[in-house]
Amino acid sequence: MSRPDLTRSRPHWLSFRVLRTEALAGLVVALALIPEAISFSIIAGVDPRVGLFASFVMAVTISVAGGRRAMISGATGAIALVLAPVAHEYGTDYLIATVLLGGVVQALLALLGIARLMRFLPRSVMVGFVNALAILIFLAQLPYLTGVPWSVYALVAAGLVIMVGLPRLTTAVPAPLVAIVTLTAVTVMAGITVPTVGDQGELPHTLPVLGLPSVPLTFETLRVIAPYAVGMALVGLMESLMTAKLVDDITDEHSNKTRESWGQGLANIVTGLFGGMGGCAMIGQTMINVKSSGARTRLSTFLAGVFLLVLVLALGPVVAIIPMAALVGVMIMVSVGTFDWHSIQPRTLRRMPKSETAVMLVTVGVTVATHNLAIGVVVGVVMAIVMFAQRVAHLVTVDSVLDPDGTTKIYRVTGQLFFASSNDLVFQFDYAGDPGTVVIDLSGAHIWDASTVAALDAIETKYRQRGTTVTINGMNEPSKRRHQALAGQLGGGH
C-alpha cells in the first residue's frame, strides 16, 4: 500500500514558511496595537483596559468572521471620537451599550447590501483617502516627538535605518520587529531614560469578562445611544470597507465586502459583550501586517489578537519597557509606505484631469482638517459626483433640420439626459419660429430622471400654446417606460 501524501492534503497556511511569516507579523502588529489602543482609550475617556480588550476581541473575532484576510481590526481613533461624548456624559456602561447597538446596526446594513455601494467610490477619492490616512498616521506620532529628550530622536533615526536597511540584507524576520527588539535592548542596557509603553497607561492584569452593560432597558436609553451607535456603524463600515479595498489592490485578491461588513458588526457585538470600546479596520496596523511583514492569511490577524493578550497579561513588565521611539519609527515607516507618492508626481499631475486632482486634494484636506476619514470621504464623493454631472451635462447636443417642404422641423437630441443636462434643454428650441409640426428625435439620448420628463413636458406645453404639433420618438425601452410613467404627472409643464 502506498502511504498518503500528507503534504498535498495539508492546508497552505500550515507550511513552516507561512506559519513563520504569519506569526512574526502578528507579533509586530500586537506590539503596535498596545500604545494605540491605550491612546484611543484616553481619547474616548475610558480605562486603557477597555481599548486593549477591544483590540484583542476585535482581532480574534474578525479573523474568523471577516471577509478580508490579513486585515487587522481593533480600537481606532475614529470610533473613539464618535463614542467619546457618550463616555464623558453617561459613563462606560452607556458606551458599551452603544457599541453593542452599533454592531447590530452594522450587521443589518450588511444584510441590506451596503457593501455594494463601494463600486461608486471614485479612484480620486480612494487616493485621497490613502494619502490622508498616511498624513494622519504621521501626525499622530508628533506628540511622542515633542518635548522629549534628544535620545528619542536618535532612537527613532536608528529604528528607521534598521527598517530601511535590513530588508536589503534579509527578509527572514520582519524589520519592524528587529527594530523594536534592538532599540528596547539598547535603552535597557545603556540605561537611557525615554518615554516607554508603560508610561501610556496601566496594562490589564486579568482576562476580559463576559457580561452586559448596566443600563436601564428603556426607550430613553435607546434615544441616548442610538445616534452615536448609527454614527459608529457608518464610520466603522466606511473605514473597514475602504481599507479592505486598499488591501485588495496590494495583494491582487478580491475580498467579500458583504461578509466583512457583517463580520465587523459581529466583532463589535462580541467586543461589547466583553467590555470593549468597539472598533473597525486599522489601516496602520494592516499595512504593517500586509506590506511590511508580508502576511496574507487569517492566521496573522488571529495571532495579533492572541499575542496582544499574552503580551499585556503575561509579559506586561517586559512590554512596558519598550521605548515609544521604537513604535513611532514603525508608524513613520507605515505612513511613508501608505502614501501614494505617484499621485503627486509632476508628470502624473500634468496628465490627470484637474477635476480629479481637485477631488483628491479636497478629500485629503477635509480629512486632515477634521481628523475624520468618513467626513473627508463623503465630501470627496459629493464633489466627484458634482464634477462628473457637470462634465456629462456638457455632452448633450441638440441639432435641428427643416424638411424641404418647410412644414416639419426635426430636432435630434444626443447625450445623457438628467437633472444637470435637461435643465437647459427647454431653451434649445425655437418655439416662435418653428413650423406647425415638430419632431423630437431621442434615438441618440437616454432619459435618466423625472427632471428630464418635466423638461419634455414643458417643451410640449410651450409648443401647444402656439398651436404646434409635437411628436417625441426614438426613445429606447427604459427611457420610454420612464417617460410613459411620468409624462403629464409632474405638474411642471401644465
Automatic annotation (TrEMBL):
<dbReference type="InterPro" id="IPR052706">
    <property type="entry name" value="Membrane-Transporter-like"/>
</dbReference>
<feature type="transmembrane region" description="Helical">
    <location>
        <begin position="150"/>
        <end position="170"/>
    </location>
</feature>
<feature type="transmembrane region" description="Helical">
    <location>
        <begin position="177"/>
        <end position="198"/>
    </location>
</feature>
<dbReference type="InterPro" id="IPR002645">
    <property type="entry name" value="STAS_dom"/>
</dbReference>
<keyword id="KW-0472">Membrane</keyword>
<feature type="transmembrane region" description="Helical">
    <location>
        <begin position="126"/>
        <end position="144"/>
    </location>
</feature>
<feature type="transmembrane region" description="Helical">
    <location>
        <begin position="265"/>
        <end position="284"/>
    </location>
</feature>
<keyword id="KW-1133">Transmembrane helix</keyword>
<feature type="transmembrane region" description="Helical">
    <location>
        <begin position="49"/>
        <end position="65"/>
    </location>
</feature>
<feature type="transmembrane region" description="Helical">
    <location>
        <begin position="225"/>
        <end position="244"/>
    </location>
</feature>
<keyword id="KW-0812">Transmembrane</keyword>
<feature type="transmembrane region" description="Helical">
    <location>
        <begin position="358"/>
        <end position="389"/>
    </location>
</feature>
<protein>
    <submittedName>
        <fullName>Sodium-independent anion transporter</fullName>
    </submittedName>
</protein>
<dbReference type="InterPro" id="IPR036513">
    <property type="entry name" value="STAS_dom_sf"/>
</dbReference>
<dbReference type="Pfam" id="PF00916">
    <property type="entry name" value="Sulfate_transp"/>
</dbReference>
<dbReference type="InterPro" id="IPR011547">
    <property type="entry name" value="SLC26A/SulP_dom"/>
</dbReference>
<feature type="transmembrane region" description="Helical">
    <location>
        <begin position="94"/>
        <end position="114"/>
    </location>
</feature>
<feature type="transmembrane region" description="Helical">
    <location>
        <begin position="304"/>
        <end position="337"/>
    </location>
</feature>
<feature type="domain" description="STAS">
    <location>
        <begin position="410"/>
        <end position="494"/>
    </location>
</feature>
<feature type="transmembrane region" description="Helical">
    <location>
        <begin position="70"/>
        <end position="88"/>
    </location>
</feature>
<dbReference type="Pfam" id="PF01740">
    <property type="entry name" value="STAS"/>
</dbReference>
<dbReference type="GO" id="GO:0016020">
    <property type="term" value="C:membrane"/>
</dbReference>
